[in-house]
Amino acid sequence: MQRAGRHGRQPPEGGPMENGVGQEPGTPEPAGPAAPRAPRARPRLVFHTQLAHGSPTGRIEGFTNVKELYAKIAEVFDISPTEILFCTLNTHKVDMQKLLGGQIGLEDFIFAHVRGETKEVEVTKTEDALGLTITDNGAGYAFIKRIKEGSIINRLQTVSVGDSIEAINDHTIVGCRHYEVARMLRELPRAQPFTLRLVQPKKAFDMIGQRTRTGKSPGEGRVASGKETLRLRTQGPAVLEEGPSPSEEEAARRVDDLLESYMGIRDSDLASTMVEAAKGSSSVAQLAQGLDSVLGEFAFPQEFVAEVWAAVCHPKGDKE
After folding, report:
1. What is the rounded CA–CA span in Å between residue 62 and residue 58?
2. d(CA 128, CA 126)
3. Which of 17, 73, 146, 305 has the fewest Cβ atoms within 10 angstroms?
4. How many CB atoms are closer than 10 A to CB 94?
5. Percentage of the chain surpassing pLDDT 70?
6. What's the burial of 37, exposed, middle or buried (CB within 10 Å: 0-12/13-18/19+)?
7. Whether the Cβ atoms of residue 106 and residue 178 lie closer than 8 Å to each other
8. For residue 158, what pLDDT is reported?
9. Alpha carbon separation from 209 to 92, 212, 318 (Å, rounded)
10. 276 to 105, 271, 291: CA distances (angstroms)
């Protein structure tokens, strides 16, 4: 697992220590030319996990992306990775503010929400917007992240935040990205009923309390800054890096709001990627070119790119 920092900070030398670094005591080095150092062992990154509806605590390590993370969790609990709808950090509740995205804090406790009951809902599109925001888990499942108050979906008592959308009019959408699902729903004709097949997360036990920190066993280390996160990659190894600054978090929130407004999706990792691209661009045109080269499948409209540029590079001029 590679180690990197937003500000180029190098880790201290030492032997391996779980979720931290340490140095085994050794004999003093003799005077004279220093002998070549043995390669430093990479620190083990071990995370604690439970099934959100209740389970013993498991320990996972050695993953670089969300699919591998789900596979590790599934292995611990002897289930199929396709049973996992999404994960939350430090709470067993269906809390979309604690949704696991592309980054995991080194002290985070991972709760996996698995498939529960399947239900079918008939919806009549009486207006253009259904009033729901879609996100996905990075492993093939799109689900409802937000429901707008007073909207068409809000009036359907059987639809809830956290429900995975498995099919639209019996056409399976498993494997589709959130923006593809949002587009399909936008393109449905008005005044014509359609059917959503939804899978709700398995219900959690009320007696399981929220966790804010992991319990460390004796001998486990801590990271010096306490702000480092594990950044998951779709390609290549995961990377340890400093957590975002308050200004970067605010810029990502603004971009995530724009994604919801323009595309009906929320994706904090995508928003962070766009913030980094905007900070490295000298103009709206350069940002558009950069986004097209790495995120061309989204086909962002020009006015959206301009608003992203304003939100990141000129936040004071951006109206709430």
Report:
1. 14
2. 7
3. 146
4. 22
5. 75
6. exposed
7. no
8. 92
9. 8, 10, 39
10. 19, 9, 11
Tens of pLDDT, residues 36-83: 555 544 557 899 999 999 999 999 999 888 899 999 999 999 999 999
Q: Which residues lie across from 53 on neighbouring strands?
A: none
Determine the Cα–Cα distance for residues 249 and 89; give it in Å rounded to an integer.
17
Q: What is the pTM of this model?
A: 0.69
- Stretch 201-230: mean pLDDT: 48
Instruction: In whole angstroms, give the CA distance from residue 320 to residue 32.
Output: 64
% of the chain exceeding 90 in pLDDT: 40
Q: What are the contacts of 169-173 at 24+ separation with CB within 8 A?
A: 169/194, 169/195, 170/195, 170/197, 173/142
Q: Which two tokens stand for residue 40?
A: 């430093």
For residues 24-33, one letter each, b for 16 or more C-beta atoms within 10 angstroms of the residue's C-beta and e for the rest, the string is eeeeeeeeee
Token pair belonging to 160: 């809830």
Cβ atoms of 89 and 108 closer than 8 Å: yes
CA 305, CA 308: separation in Å to the nearest integer? 5
CB 164 within 8 A of CB 85: yes
Closest by Cα among 131, 151, 179, 128 to 301: 179
Which residue type, as a one-letter code, is found at position 169? N
Strands 15-17 and 2-3: unpaired
Question: For residue 144, what are the β-bridge partners?
Answer: 134
Residue 181: CA atoms inside 13 Å, Cβ hemisphere, count? Answer: 31
Is there a contact between 127 and 190 (Cβ–Cβ < 8 Å)? yes
- Identity of residue 55: S
